[in-house]
Amino acid sequence: MNSILSVLARRLATTTLVLFGVSVLIFLIARIIPGDPARIALGPRATPEQVERMRETLHLNEPLVTQYFYFLSDLLRGDLGISLYTNRPVMTDIAQFLPATLELVLLAGIFMVAIGLPLGALAARHRGGWPDNIIRVLTLMTVSAPSFVWAVILVLLFSYYLPLFPIAGRIHETIMIPPVTGFMLIDTILAGSWDGFWSALHHLILPAFALSLSGIGQAARLTRSNMVEVYDQPYIEMAQSYGFPEDRIARKYAFKPSLIPSLTIIGLDFAALLGNAFLVETIFAWPGISRYGVGVILQKDLNAIVGTVMIISATFLIANIIVDLLVAYINPRIRYAERSK
Amino acid sequence: MSADLALSIRNLALSFKSWSGTSQVLHGIDLEIKRGERVALVGESGSGKSVTARIILGTLHELKSARISGEVWVAGREMSSLSQSERQALRGTDISMIFQDPTTALNPVYTIRQQFHEVLMRGDPKISLSTAEQRSADILREVSITDTERVLESYPFQLSGGMNQRVMIGMALINEPQLLLADEPGTALDVTVQAQTLRLMRDLVRQHGTSVLFISHNLGVVREFADRIYVIYKGRIVETGPAASIFDDPRHAYTKALLAAIPRLTGGGIPEIQEDSEAFFDPMVTHEDVSA
Ligand SMILES: Nc1ncnc2c1ncn2[C@@H]1O[C@H](COP(=O)(O)OP(=O)(O)OP(=O)(O)O)[C@@H](O)[C@H]1O
Ligand SMILES: [Mg+2]
Predict the structure, then answer these.
(1) Rg from Cα positions in chain A
(2) Whose CA is nearest to atom 29 of ligand 1?
(3) I need a surface site. Which of A192, A243, B99, B135 has the fewest CB within 10 A?
(4) Across the interface, do B91 and A243 touch by the CB < 8 Å criterion?
């Protein structure tokens, strides 16, 4: 366990460095973009005096390095400025929109792992047989169309023709839940509303599934190919020579080692869900951060862009840390390499 | 099959079916191992040694392209008359196998302790953790491992090849199988370690009274280990007899060629018999077993 903790410590240190780098990069990009932030903030009708006063408050007349440190200290205090798009602190917007996306992406990630990995393992266990062929065709279909195409198809099929799932929104409009964490599934429980919880889950399933479909296919195909490679290893033949049942060999002997090369890539696919979430959020009218992010980009809302990019990078990096911990947990070589450092 | 036989093979033939046709790999093999006897099957690469082992083990029966005929009696049962699950039940209990490279044959993501426990559960599905621990440590001491605690909690990559080899030998013997198959054991190790572990294995199977089929392409390796030897060439047994008389008086042209190749083999390499001779297809030679 110590070794897992030291993997964690190491990754937290590098993540902090990366976030610092991201902050420099975003800051520079925000300053290089043509247009005076003060003028953009005040709108076209502002007088030169007003603009000058704004430049003073925004420290725009100071050297770049000084400006960066103002930016950084605001950032560390959780102050990302005011969004022009919503006229509220960017932090408030993020706190409102991020949980909706995280809820969506986390459930999609759960689908990806809980459906994709077993499908891939099943295909590998019966490699060359009919389950393998069926799974190959299905997963090829899911990876060959992007998430938003699946979103449209699923909405048509399961909300329109077969009204099994709601078309849009996070919860039934008659249910009022006071926001606490912003996670609807949690807030409904906090409010003691089981109806609310089921309604929120009901609203979440279809968009999350649409978002996860190509990830499911990718995870399944990756798991299959890595596991088929493991099946050629001598330790599988040794397990067979001891008469272990084939299903046990698949689960215990072949699947676990095959996760070592799969997990890192599945982690990246998981992080990519954040990016793919935009069109899915748009189709399902899901009030998430991806939709907000595109909105603020179109508005050239600088503070909000900076805030959104920082938060999405941080989420991305946290997902990476979790994957690294899982890899260390599964692969003894990494744990022991860490211990001997 | 008489009761004093651990293995009896009668007229075993094997062919593989593929798109391009059938290829005959074994052309009617007869082979016997008495209880407690150590027998070697020796031949060059591709002669059909490993497929023979996999038929005895019952794993090749699962391959759709394999056509197997003849009889293979193990532990009083004929392999091809058994169902898949009956064959499986024999493995790990009545028959076990040792592989060429110990380090890749052990699972990389489980500790030696966990792997011993799995194998012990083949013998006794309800075995308690403490009994499993006790028995694993006992067998490790038998293969001359003294720091059993450290070895048990190690992963294969943390142990040397020789250490893994001993672990694998211990694992193969822990359920007291009647028949042990060893397919070129330790060829991946360096020569001195290989010799050391082979000696250890020989003493151990002698103590346990285990019958062994030892597969090798190197007659030299087999010399100290085997009571009797079968020489196989292109899917046919060409010569068989007690080890001493094969070495003292090789009569088949192929056996002579194999023996002549030994001095070049000190590195543990594969014998290179330069050219195939017509005489290699001469009829089988059987040495009289004086002890029988
Ligand atoms: N699954 C298979 N399908 C088709 N042919 C096979 C298969 N397995 C083995 N063979 C063929 O059977 C022959 C005997 O193979 P086998 O593995 O028994 O050789 P071997 O005597 O063990 O040689 P080596 O010393 O190289 O291990 C070879 O010609 C091989 O190509
Ligand atoms: Mg072989």
Answers:
(1) 24
(2) B46
(3) A192
(4) yes
